[in-house]
Amino acid sequence: MTSILPENVIFANDRIEKFRAAEKNDKINAMYEKGDIVVGNDFLKLDSGRQIRVLIHENLHKRLDKYGPSQHRRFLNNMTEIYDDFGREIAQDVADLANSDIEAIRSRRNIGSEVSDDSLKDWINNINTFLFKEYIDKGQLDRAKEEFIVESLTNTALIEYLNKVKVDDVGDKSKSKTIWQKIMNFINKLFNLDVVEGSLREKEYNAFARALTDDTNADTNVQTETETNTEETQDEQVEDKVIENETPTPGTDSELSNEVDYNAASDDDFDYDAFSSRPEFPSLYSAIDSLPMEQHSQFATLLASGDVSITCK
Questions:
Q1: Widest Cα–Cα separation across the chain
Q2: Can you name the residues that pair with 30 across neighbouring β-strands?
Q3: Which residues pair with 36 in a beta bridge?
Q4: Per-residue model confidence as pLDDT tens digits over 252-268
Q5: Residue 267, CA distances (Å) to 31, 50, 133, 264, 283 in order
Q6: Phi, psi of 213 (to 5 degrees)
Q7: Which residues neighbour 3 within 8 Å (Cβ) at sequence distance 6 or greater?
Q8: CA–CA separation, 134 vs 119, rounded Å?
Q9: N or C: lower Cβ tally within 10 Å for the chain?
Q10: Residue 299: per-residue pLDDT
């Protein structure tokens, strides 16, 4: 599997500031633009686990961009049901919030009394931002769907929510794992995340098996990306690339779990101190070198099992 982290990261705060001004969003700390993954000053202020998730996030945008317009659109179309299911569920929670029916949310999401009403309200309001209505208002529905999908793989708050959404039908399980399922498995191992049985997250996992299928209703002629499969050549008529970014909101990285410390900045144990003093990471190896020794063995295990491979330019 190709590198989950980008091989090159460019530090260019001027590019981040320019994009912030264009988007009228001063919370942007990283973006994918014209083949480059760019970070700015505020990226260096993030906690270590968040930095890694941001880099994975932007690298997933880069992977999707490389598909070319037609395959990129096919991927988004085949994942639309997950986005729509999420929109329907969070709309119900937001409506209950507006009606001060906190207990309905607690019951639906299986959240105990040890989580305060205020924490629950903040969590629901934060999760609602992952619809990316600001893009929909601009007529950029595909951008909203892509941002949601990438966040659903890298944002712990959204992952926690998807695991709490119960669905009647999670879809058929594939016999072999596609590249997107392997990506999800790797991120789960890296950050100790899970896929709850019968949840919307399990449905998303199964949907990734069909993400690059020509016809989601067909049982034959299925085209999926594999480790040896080359990605689709760029279409002759290339559409304008969408600049993507990581736009954190308050509480984005805190999970709403009965065991979580709500005052903690992050729920992972990774310590990438070197990231805060290095503006450029020329390879994944250099990122691994900055890990604590105990994390080296974890990566070695993942490499040996074939869950991830490293490629450098």
A1: 57
A2: 39
A3: 33
A4: 343 343 332 222 223 33
A5: 23, 10, 27, 7, 26
A6: -80, 140
A7: 59, 284, 308, 309, 310, 311
A8: 24
A9: C
A10: 53
CA dist 172 and 214 (Å) reads: 17
> 71-105, pLDDT tens digit by residue?
999 999 999 999 999 999 999 999 999 999 999 99
Please give the backbone phi and psi of residue 11, each rounded to the nearest 5 degrees, phi first: -95, 115
| pLDDT-above-70 percentage for the chain | 67
**Cα 144–chain centre separation:** 13
Among 204, 88, 92, 77, residue whose Cα is nearest residue 141: 77
Lowest mean pLDDT among 22-36, 132-146, 212-226, 258-272: 258-272
81 residue type, one letter: E
Strand order in the sheet with 36-39: 10-11, 36-39, 30-33, 244-245
Which residues are registered as beta bridge partners of 111? none
By CB atoms closer than 10 A (0-12, 13-18, 19+), residue 93 is buried
DSSP string, 214-283: S-TT-SSS-----TTPPPPPPPSSPPPPPPEE----TTTT----TT--TT-S-S-----GGGGG-S---S
Inter-residue contact 54 to 30 (CB < 8 Å): yes
The residue to which tokens 């460019």 are assigned: 10
* pLDDT over 50 (residue 224): no
Q: Which residues partner with 32 through β-bridges? A: 37, 244
Q: What sign has the CA pseudo-torsion 203, 209, 215, 221?
A: negative
pLDDT bucket at 297, cuts 50 / 70 / 90: low
pTM here is 0.71
Structural contact between residues 209 and 224, judged by C-beta atoms closer than 8 angstroms? yes
Q: What pLDDT, on a 0 to 100 scale, did the predictor assign at position 28?
A: 93
Is 162 a residue whose pLDDT tops 80? yes
Evaluate if residue 311 carries a pLDDT over 80.
no
